Request: fold
Amino acid sequence: MAEPTELLALARTFGDTVLERWERLVSLETPSADAGRAAVFGKELAAGLAATADRIEHPTGPGGDHLVAYWNGRGTPSPSADDGPRTGHTLLVAHSDTVFEAGTIARRPFTLAEDGDTVTGPGVFDMKGSLVAVELAMDLLSRTGAAPRRPVRLVVVNDEEIGSPDGARLVARHAEGAHAVLGLEPPLPGGALKIGRRGVARVRLSVRGVSAHAGLDAALGVSAIDELVDQLASLRATAASLPDAALNVGTITGGTRANVVADHAEAEIGLRYATPETEQALLKAVLEPTPVRERAALSTRTLSHRPAWAMDPANPLAAELVALADTLGLELPLGSSGGAGDTNLTGALGIPTVDGLGPAGAGAHGEDEHASLSSLLERAALLAAFLESH
Ligand SMILES: [Zn+2]
Reply:
């Protein structure tokens, strides 16, 4: 057994080690879908986790190695009515890729600010710092002679920033039978945990019309562009009528020239929705459009889809984490996120899920991305204390 306060005090002695490790992981750049760099990073991450993990796997995907690490629990907890179906492992969900192109590090190297706490560099916040926090959490347990109460699995996918086209299947597989899912994404402003995330989908809507001379034979033609514009206006009205729905027409193309009735047009549409009900209504409207013009042909293709994880203010897992943070003297606010991630899947499946457990910071995906060293140490202690006691 390790007291949470003991874990926190110990974590706070690891500032220098953490900075060194953090710099190392940030320096190994990992743009999404770069198989070579993902493999190098996976090897480095595995080397760090190997100090405590019982087993490490490198399942491959199109973008290179993903990583799954396993830690044994102290034993099967004695079955009790309170446990209900929550008898499985604790799943930690993370990603290794960043939105930054290779070479960014040369321009914007890993830097510790003069305040001795603020760290900058590509991916410090989203989410290399979170990976360092997991390594430290497991190290804290091992150094205090403690172990996780339940088996722990860490899934690190390499394609989260492009919608986890392959990683989602890995998260789904390892979520099966999980007792709880902790997402290591960066927290909301102020370090708040995420207990709900809007779902996101991208859909391509294509229209086929009939081309004709715009002056002489306009009546023979069917304008794909006019049809598309009408469809988009109608979809915009549908989105506006639904609670917590957002629609963004991201791209639009079509036609050839001003004196030709356009025979093709298409748009890529981004959708966001906070609840399963809105998700269903919005997707139905977009995926099953009815042509306004009889001779126009419409087709749709779903390019990516993450389900809505509706926020439950009474999320019991979040309540446990807040109580635990309280014993450490840490404040842990809760909120819901406008962006989606891999925990949308587990939250939507009804598995107790909390995200945003990475260290506090701001500026994800931007030039001023930064994160807090002291927060990383606190999050590592919180994570260790949670795994030890839950
Ligand atoms: Zn992220």
Notes: Residues 78-86 have pLDDT under 50 and may be disordered.
